[in-house]
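[Automated response] Your request has been received and processed.

Submitted sequence:
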Amino acid sequence: MGMRPPTGVPTLSKRSRVLLILAVVAAVLLLLGPRLVDTYTNWLWFGEVDFRDVYVKVLLTRIALFLVVGLFIGGVVWLTMLLAYRSRPVFVPTTGPNDPVARYRTTVMTRMRAFGIGIPVVLGVLSGLVAQAGWVTVQMFFNGGDFGTTDPQFGLDVGFYAFDLPFYRFVLNWFFVAIVLGFIANLVTHYIFGGIRLAGRGGSMSTASRVQLAGLFVAFKAVAYWLDRYELLWSSRKEPTFTGGGFTDINAVLPAKLILLAIAVICAIAFFAAIFLRDLRIPALATALLVLSSILVGAVYPLMVEQFSVRPNAADKESEYIERNIAATREAYGITDDKVAYEDYPGVGTTSPENIPADITTIANARLLDPNVLPRTFTQQTQLKNFYGYPESLDIDRYELDGRMEDYIVAARELSPTSLTGNQTDWINRHTVYTHGNGLVAAPANRVNAAASASAEEAANSNSGYPVYFVSDLASLAAENQVIPVEQPRIYYGEVIAEADPDYAIVGNSADSSGPREYDTDTEKYTYTGTGGVDIGNWFNRLAFAAKYGERNILFSSAIGSDSKILFNRDPRERVTKVAPWLTADGDAYPAAIDGRIKWVVDAYTTLDYYPYAQRASLEGLVEDSIDQNTGRLLPRKEVSYIRNSVKATVDAYDGTVTLYQVDDEDPVLKAWMGVFPDAVTPQDQISDELRAHFRYPEDLFKVQREMLAKYHVDDPREFFTNNAFWSVPADPTVDTSANQPPYYLLMGDRETADPRFRLTSAMVGYNRQFLSAYISVESDPENYGKFTILQLPTDTQTFGPEQTQNAMISDTRVASERTLLERSNRIQYGNLLTLPIADGGILYVQPMYTERNATAGSTSTFPQLSRVLVSYREPGASGGVRIGYAPTLAGALDQVFGPGVGDAATAPGGEALPTAEVEDETRGEVIEGTTDENQPSDQQQQQPTSPAPTTPANRDAAVAELDSALAELANAQTSGDFEAYGRALRRVQQAVDAYESTGG
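Generated structure:
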């Protein structure tokens, strides 16, 4: 029987080769074309914002990593293949005509260069593409420094863990990749050329292959064990109790790593010795020893220590390591004792607030306008055109006008491309006509245009309870009557503008010289004159952007002339993170009038993935609250164990200029990045006073810190282990979900000077409970920026938390009865429930109530208006009840709680913008009697009225007569079936009862 010679790959015809080459070129263009276009347009964009040095350095670092790792991996694979080929047997026996290897061997032999170079090149390119993503690790290694803090276990500076250890692990991982790929390449080459035979009755391996497959892998494994020791300091074994090396990690796993390291070194020596001894039994025994040791020493022994030594005595065993975790977490999250002041706070007031100047300031500035309820109100009343709009959540900022500091609801009236309809959506109109917004809108947060009527139905149908708007736009600029000065009110960059996909606008003179084409006002057109935008006056750039957006109109439209520019990447947060990819942006950018310009202020964070012993947590989980769920705001999906707000960025709303300001001189991470990009960050001594006055303490950072403070205010490690003293963030009682209550920006009176201080605040409740446990506030004003004050309530008192207060308020008979009437034709929405510490130990809750007429299907003409204000306050004394105030004005509600005249005195600096409507004679609020339910006050919190004013028998007789008359009216209304009359009668009865009680009856 004759043998058929092995055949190779069929030869392609010339035509087939040409077609194959064209197909490969087309595939490469499809894959690389978009990336090349993006690279070029990014190059242009970074030049526009004057951050091209950042782009170039990042690009060069990525290219360098690609080349170094690609050449290293490709070289190792090529070398192992070469060595295997050179040591191939001289005679390669075949197993007959069906030998599966012979055919491939022939193919490889006929194309030795293609396979010998092609395979290493492909593997090198793929490895380089993966490795270039590690540019941050490499730059941090070369530019990082010391933290000045050492870890408690090894005594090394934290900079080693932040900057050096990730790089060492990065390099080691690529050594492992090189060894594995080299091993596989060597093995396959040996197999192809007969060094290894698997066919027949048994396989065999050549002596040369045994030499080349010796123990580099095991040697590097020994290095990995050495590095593993340091990574124990962020072990997750004890989560969720704490992060970091616990008793088992330090006393069992750490010695095990050293033992395994020694065994790995012995095994590596055994592998190399086998090269000369020509005996594979030695490395085989060494491998078995390493595997068995890994199981027994590395896994079984720590498990036994954990189960039989630690768990039965966990509080004592873990005490030392919990102390380490507490100290490291406070340092990593910026909540150390020099930044956080703890104060005992009784939770029960001892002084009337009208006698405390700081309380008058606090109450006068109580926010009645909720920025998350009013976007539709702003839209309906100040939108002007259908293509303008506001974000789903407005912002809070403060301005000093006429020598008086107040907080304002602020919003930029932006272009809303998603609101364009009809022919407005035509490409020309969308991208060259409707290009910008118009003006900054602000409304004092503590007042409305007029108080609502005392009648619920009249209040819901009146033109009252709306914001008092201060608008700085083109119209006010022409009239020269801006309250908040803005020289350039046009807005080309913003959050709402960026919601469009794509979000670009083309501005400048057109090719047909038809004059200005951008919509500005109903009577005027405009041509952009700012420095923002990328030039598309030349055909090459037009072609690049036409390819980028897949839009042929960019090539052929006469709206584009030689001076035209394209504005893109218009989201302020995106612009900041693009020019500074090492920063994490806060989720909320806010507009501010600064030096006559509208600028977006963006808080930015430096972070670390691993900080020794610091608690590691997901930013997404820590910062999410009810506002984020309602607005769908994108949250940072990143796990961190260190965070600093070291950079404040501004983005000019007109020309898009991005400026990064350093605001933390001590942050080692920012110092490292400033070493990488020396000119990217502006020193803080160049921050203007006006800009600094608008800096706010960032919300996302505060949310992270309050979650950490909920646990890490505890000093005693044993108490920490029991969770007994922990706090929780309360659920937001104004929504139906269990989402966290957001923090609130408030103007609060300074205790010493009574001057208003802009603070970010949050109530805290007991662990898995609803009673108030603490009140956290942090300063935003330049003098004491970043200083925390934590008021700690006694653990044996039961001061209502936000959820309990909300329940008490809406259960009030006056609120419930009026709500029944209103809900027939209105939608009721409760605004932000503010927690205000007042009265030398008391807690005042203030909440606005909004009504909105029920709209017909598809109608958008209704919007919320402030109708009522609810307040709640716990009376002094150990058995003090909780009084509820409910009135059209804050002053009226305070009068019901504290007595007549207190409201006017306490709200004197803030007051309502216009004289309030007359309020019925409601002098006292309702007292919530105690129950044993945790959601209600305890039985110790019974009614204890404050001392009434002196009365006369005539007053008492009049009160009795009024009570009899009110009861008679209630009986008549009940039989008539008139719900509105019944509600009025019920309120009259309640008022009569309160009046009678105030006379001492």
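Summary generated for your ticket: DSSP finds 32 helices and 35 strands in the chain. Confidence is low (pLDDT under 50) at residues 1-9, 199-205, 910-954.
If you did not submit this request, please reply to this message.
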